[in-house]
């Protein structure tokens, strides 16, 4: 094993409250700390680690840079001090392994080069969603998709399950250069969802609270009204189940029971 270690971890969602002692320990031991998170959290973390490197600067100022290029530059920024024999800790907003391309890529590359590299889990947006909205994915099952991926590919959808579409705030952007969406793109998503749901089916726009002094967003509205709603990059679309489950009588027969055995 080569000298130098990479630890990639998460800050959680809410400023200060979700940061664990294990994460703080890794930050304290690191020779180099890099971070990618919202401005409030970054400012707070810089107060504890002044030499912290802000990865968000790699996005550029004009807003036209391809995020895929930015992600590769972030990966390189993490790997360079590791290759110099440093202990590196990179901390990301939320959970470092959820909707985060860079952490997975950096760990994979570091391991291929012979370095010790680990990922520490953290509280993610979906954990906050279940708590804030009172939803248990174990009750109805869960389908979770990135919104644009769901829109442009033929992905299956089960309306008897809870459906979560992430990053609806940038739905339809195939250039990876924008941090917003447009009503016509949202309408395209609604049109596709109407294959399974009625226009009046209630959906939820959710945003987890970032600051301890604020509450989460829980805006309930008919599916047909989505194009008129406001969105942020962190907005998530939650679609409650529509249908009851249908018993699989063939499977029940293989177990030697009938539908009466179901709870």
From TrEMBL:
Domain of life where this protein originates:
Bacteria
Tell me, what is one Gene Ontology molecular-function annotation carried by this entry?
methyltransferase activity
Q: Where is the Tetrapyrrole methylase domain?
A: 5-209
Q: Mind telling me which Gene3D superfamilies this protein's record contains?
A: Cobalt-precorrin-4 Transmethylase, Domain 1 (3.40.1010.10)
The record ties this protein, via SUPFAM superfamilies, to: Tetrapyrrole methylase
What Pfam families does UniProt report for this protein, alphabetically? Answer: TP_methylase
Q: What is this protein called?
A: Tetrapyrrole methylase domain-containing protein
Q: Which organism is it from?
A: Corallincola holothuriorum
């Amino acid at each position: 094993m080569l000298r130098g270690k990479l630890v990639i971890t998460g800050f959680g969602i809410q400023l200060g409250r979700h940061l664990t002692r294990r994460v703080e320990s890794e930050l304290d031991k690191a020779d180099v700390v890099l971070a990618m998170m919202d401005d409030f959290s970054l400012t707070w973390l810089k107060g504890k680690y002044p030499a912290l490197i802000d990865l968000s600067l790699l996005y550029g100022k004009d807003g036209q840079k391809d995020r895929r290029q930015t992600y590769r530059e972030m990966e390189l920024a993490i790997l360079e001090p590791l290759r110099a024999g440093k202990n590196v800790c990179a901390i990301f907003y939320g959970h470092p392994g959820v909707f985060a391309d860079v952490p997975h890529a950096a760990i994979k590359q570091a391991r291929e080069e012979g370095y010790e590299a680990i990922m520490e889990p953290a509280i993610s947006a979906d954990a906050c969603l279940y708590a804030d909205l009172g939803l248990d994915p174990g009750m109805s099952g869960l389908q979770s998709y990135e919104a644009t991926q769901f829109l442009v590919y033929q992905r299956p959808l089960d309306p008897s399950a809870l459906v979560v579409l992430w990053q609806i705030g940038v739905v339809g952007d195939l250039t990876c250069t924008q941090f917003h969406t447009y009503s016509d793109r949202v309408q395209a998503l609604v049109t596709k969802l109407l294959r399974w749901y009625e226009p009046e089916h209630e959906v939820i726009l959710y945003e987890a609270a970032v600051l301890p002094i604020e509450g989460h967003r829980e805006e309930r509205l008919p599916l047909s009204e989505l194009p008129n709603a406001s969105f942020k990059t962190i907005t998530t679309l939650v679609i409650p189940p529509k249908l009851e489950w249908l018993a699989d009588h063939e499977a029940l027969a293989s177990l030697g029971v009938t539908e009466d055995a179901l709870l």
